[in-house]
Amino acid sequence: MKNPNYNVTKEQHLKELKTRIPPILNVDIIIRKGELLLIARHKDSLTNPKEPKWMFPGSRMHWDETPQETALRVLANEVPGVTASLKKLVSVVSDKGWDNRANGICIYYVFDYISGEPKANVQMIDFKWVTHQEFTSADDIYSIDQNLAKELDVAIRGINISEDEVLTEVNKDDEEIGKIIKKEAHSSNKRFHRAAHLMIFTSKGEVILQQRSWNKMSGPGKWDMPGGHQVLGQTIEQCAASELAEEMGISIDLTFVRKGLYQDTNQSEYYYLYAGISDGPYGFDKNEVEQIKVFDCKKLLLKEYEEAPQVLDHVFGYIKELRPFWEPLTKSVAINS
Predict the structure, then answer these.
(1) Which of 5, 191, 199, 216 qualifies as a FRET site for 297, CA 20 to 30 Å off?
(2) What's the CA gap between 200 and 328, in Å, rounded?
(3) In this predicted model, what pLDDT tens digit does every residue of 168-189 receive, in sequence order?
(4) CB under 8 Å to 8, separation ≥6 — which residues?
(5) Which residues are 28's β-sheet partners?
(6) CATH label, 10-157, candidates 3.90.1300.10, 3.30.1330.30, 3.20.20.70, 3.90.79.10
(7) Which residues, at least 6 apart from 169, have a Cβ–Cβ distance to it below 8 Å?
(8) Which of 233, 231, 243, 296 has the alpha carbon at shortest distance from 273?
(9) Residue 309, SS3?
(10) Residue ranges per structural domain of the chain
């Protein structure tokens, strides 16, 4: 995630601080699994012994870190034992009047919980999971955190529409080399990342597509396949499985088809194409997808639908390419009928 042009030394940074005294930057993380994770700190680590017991994990931002890097450090150091995926910026607020050490700015990120439970450490002595109602009504939670309730609701409703995620960065040979923020991955074709593309068919050989939300910046209202980027800490296989669960609410065996490289002026993406079979039922995120629909592959290819659905070009190409996968299914149905 480091900008290759960044070469500021610690001495230069300190010189700038002496000239202009900025607020202190803090990064707090909100881990959610339906409920929210709160921690209780050791008394000697509290800035005010009278402050409420429960709060979100957080830390000062180091001078050479990005906010996302601080968030990942907080996850590793303050709640060891928990695996979670950084999803989205929630809010940026001033903690002036709450922290008696300095005037600070708090940056909040929401994480999706994956597994594990926090382990006691030098900072934290206890933890608990709370419901939304408990979070907003309790009187022993840090009030600056409680004030985020509405903004957190908004962030969670659009949690899968974000450029804040931390992705796995790869080199031109598709070898993992580190991490990259999603917005950076979509701003330069000199740096590479990965994604999983998932083509799902019914047992009758029909293709299952999603209509993209009309709120999408790219391809609003068009028909697309499930898929997503490989985030830091995942394998590409785990990425494929988690995207299928998130976007369609299903868990099935997937067949790896091939790998390819997509490049344009803004990005370089190695995509891994998978195919699978499912007859549902299907679920979807209504903030990201308008609807899910089953289409007859041959009718799509021959443009025989009365109102031709606007299918994204690469998805249309995958339907053609995967004919050997879905066509035998249609023939099997014909034989059995």
Answers:
(1) 216
(2) 15
(3) 999 999 999 999 999 899 999 9
(4) none
(5) 58, 108
(6) 3.90.79.10
(7) 1, 176, 177, 178, 179, 180, 185, 191, 192, 193
(8) 243
(9) coil
(10) 10-157, 167-336
